UniProtKB/TrEMBL annotation:
Record bears the keyword Oxidoreductase: yes
Full protein name: Phosphogluconate dehydrogenase (NAD(+)-dependent, decarboxylating)
Family assignment from sequence similarity: Belongs to the 6-phosphogluconate dehydrogenase family.
Keywords linked to the UniProt accession: Gluconate utilization, Oxidoreductase
Keyword Oxidoreductase set for record: yes
Source superkingdom: Bacteria
Name of encoding gene: gnd
EC number, UniProt record: 1.1.1.343
Cross-referenced InterPro entries: 6-PGluconate_DH-like_C_sf (IPR008927), 6DGDH_YqeC (IPR004849), 6PGD_dom2 (IPR013328), 6PGDH_C (IPR006114), 6PGDH_NADP-bd (IPR006115), 6PGdom_BS (IPR006184), NAD(P)-bd_dom_sf (IPR036291), Pgluconate_DH (IPR006183)
Length: 298
């Protein structure tokens, strides 16, 4: 069942924007996927026990639920339902330090564990998902037909990054870089909008998509956003963070690796959530005190 190039059975837990589209892409490639979700309208079975019962041994189950407690509790429940020789894949955005704990929980029953950092978002169904995978060589090899079906066409888009935890670590760094790249495009956008020299900011971004050293898929998406809303009038400047930017900065501190661009891009997101920055109020007050500079009242 698990030889490369052959169709496989797979259980998919979590059928949201990512998991649901991954299920469709796998099925299109000829694999049989049994899906479970708390939303019965999209689920094939009504429980984790039902999902396990619907799969032939040795089983492979892919978990695509929110990181943290939701993933941990799912893995713990699977540990009591699966059998020796089965494999669990955590494809969510878990912190890499959770992987060793999950692997140990499953190993007690002889169940394998693979962590998969997945990038592709809502476009993955058609474009494919970049996969950064951690785990034992034999476990990864067994799942290779699934990885081959999910990854983009071509030579790249999949890596076995190392042992357990390596996949989520690589995805964490990927997302940290993503933070900094988005911040750079955003700052360039603001500067262009502020300039009296440039009349057509959306067309400037569009022109960069070919032949420039800053072309990228993110730039393509920025162009797409500006086509829909040239002044971004319908978007509030409030940006959340999923956690991976913070973890990347934490690792930079732990390993004494300077990450100024990634760190500043994370702090910029924090700034976006303040209606009126207390720190900037303090700066304004200090300028008034030492230099008599005017202060704007509330």
């Amino acid at each position: 069942m698990f030889e490369r190039g052959r169709d496989m059975q797979l259980g998919m837990i979590g059928l949201g924007k990512m998991g649901g589209n991954m299920k469709l892409r796998l099925e299109k490639a000829g694999h049989r996927v049994v899906g479970y979700d708390r939303n019965p309208d999209v689920a094939d079975v009504d429980s984790l026990a039902g999902l396990v019962a619907a799969l032939d041994a040795p089983r492979a189950v892919w978990v695509m639920v929110p990181a943290g407690e939701a993933t941990r509790s799912t893995v713990e429940e699977l540990a009591g339902l699966l059998s020796e020789g089965d494999i669990v894949v955590d494809g969510g955005n878990s912190r890499f330090t959770d992987d060793a704990v999950n692997a140990k929980t499953l190993a007690a029953g002889g169940i394998g564990y693979v962590d998969a950092g997945v990038s592709g978002g809502v476009w993955g169904l058609t474009e494919g998902y970049a996969l950064m995978v951690g785990g034992a060589e034999a476990d990864v090899a067994r799942l290779q037909p699934v990885f081959d079906a999910l990854k983009p066409e071509g030579e790249h888009g999949f890596v076995h990054a190392g042992g357990v935890g390596a996949g989520h670590y690589a995805k964490m760094v990927h997302n940290g870089i993503e933070y900094a790249m988005m911040q750079a495009y955003a700052e360039g956008y603001e500067l262009l909008e502020a300039s009296e020299y440039v009349d057509n900011v959306p067309e400037v971004f569009k022109s960069w998509r070919e032949g420039t050293v800053i072309r990228s898929w993110l730039l393509d998406l920025m162009d797409r956003a500006l086509e829909a809303d040239p002044k971004l009038d319908h978007v509030k400047g409030y940006v959340e963070d999923s956690g991976e930017g913070r973890w990347t900065v934490d690792e930079g501190i732990r390993l004494r690796v300077p990450l100024p661009a990634i760190t500043e891009s994370l702090f910029a997101r924090f700034t976006s959530r303040q209606e009126d920055s207390p720190a900037m109020k303090a700066v304004a007050a200090l300028r008034n005190q030492f230099g008599g500079h005017a202060v704007k009242s509330e």
